[in-house]
Amino acid sequence: MADKGIKPGELTTRKEMRSVFGGGQSQGIQPCSISPNVLLYTDPASGEKSGYYDGWLPIDGHSAPLFEYTGDGEGDQVFHGRYGPRNHAILMHAKEGRALRVFKATGKVPGKGTKLQRYVGKFKLDEEEPYVLRQAPNQAGELRRVIVFRLRPVDELTPLLEDTIELLTKTEVQQVPVDTATSIIVDPETYSGKPISRSATRSTKVKRREAELCEEFRKMLEEHEHQVRRFQIRTSGLSSSLLTDLYDTKSQVLYEAKGTSSREAVRMAIGQLMDYRRHITPNPTLAVLLPEKPNSDLQDLLKSVNINLVYRDNESFVGWPVEGS
Fold first, then answer.
1. Which of 90, 216, 242, 249 is 20 to 30 A from 102, comparing alpha carbons?
2. Which pTM does this prediction carry?
3. Would you kindly state where each structural domain of the chain is located, as residue ranges?
């Protein structure tokens, strides 16, 4: 079977794909040895036992098709170290000149126990947001951090209904560890082989600054014996997740951090906090965490919507402690 002969919807087996592309037959993520590909196998029958819900996100008519694929590892999933090579292979596929090819288990070869694999198509990582981090149970029922890769089809593909992730019928809200959204911040050039725009580089620096601000504030809270968590919110009618920034469980204060103190950042933080609060019971006190003091008009804006302001001033945080509910 030649590479060019493999078409979306075609049924094959892992053994046949190994002869075509290289790679092993046992793992879900298979970097290939004889071709520039990484084969991604998804099997709902076994994968959902490990909290893997792979598939197309429902199309709302305004966004391009997007396929979510969960990374490798029963514990907290990572990109480096002993348990990270397969996830790293996906992250680095563009820089290494590899394509991502997705296959889905569907039935068995007649008269045999060998699983059939339906070829879904060729993909690449989404350039704006290559992955998100979530909490999901493993086979032992223990929550751990998972890497959910966001894949875009290279060629035009028509998502099948049977490959689409089911919408939630009820909103789910749970507290999760702070490090759910903590990972090595990857610069755009790390995972993309394309030239990096100034705006992309600037955006990455802002995200890094925001992450550093969150980490410093979290450490300060914990030094004062405050437990810090996050909320993972999965809303009904959708399949994706919302993940808040810091939540001080002792004072019941929800913080939204930003990497700049600009008007755009403050207005976005206000909208996010209002969105999150609707789903959290009891309703938390809201606060915006900024890297420096914003101008007086923005301070007035926050007061007008009853949102507290905390900002860094040298080695301290002005506006803390915030009186909670």
1. 242
2. 0.77
3. 3-162, 198-318
Q: Are 103 and 28 in contact (CB under 8 A)?
A: no
The class level of CATH for 3-162 reads: mainly beta
Amino acid at 235: T
The fold adopted by the segment(s) 198-318 is Trna Endonuclease; Chain: A, domain 1 (3.40.1350)
The separation between CA 2 and the C-alpha centre of its own chain, rounded to angstroms, equals 34
Token look-up 């991502």 returns 100
Contact 56/64 with Cβ under 8 angstroms? no
Using the structure block, give the residue that is written with the tokens 């997705």.
102
> With 90 as the cut, is the pLDDT of residue 255 above it?
yes
Please check whether residue 47 is in contact with residue 70, taking contact to mean a CB–CB distance below 8 angstroms: yes
d(CA 107, CA 172): 32
Measured CA to CA, the distance from residue 261 to residue 257 in angstroms comes to 10
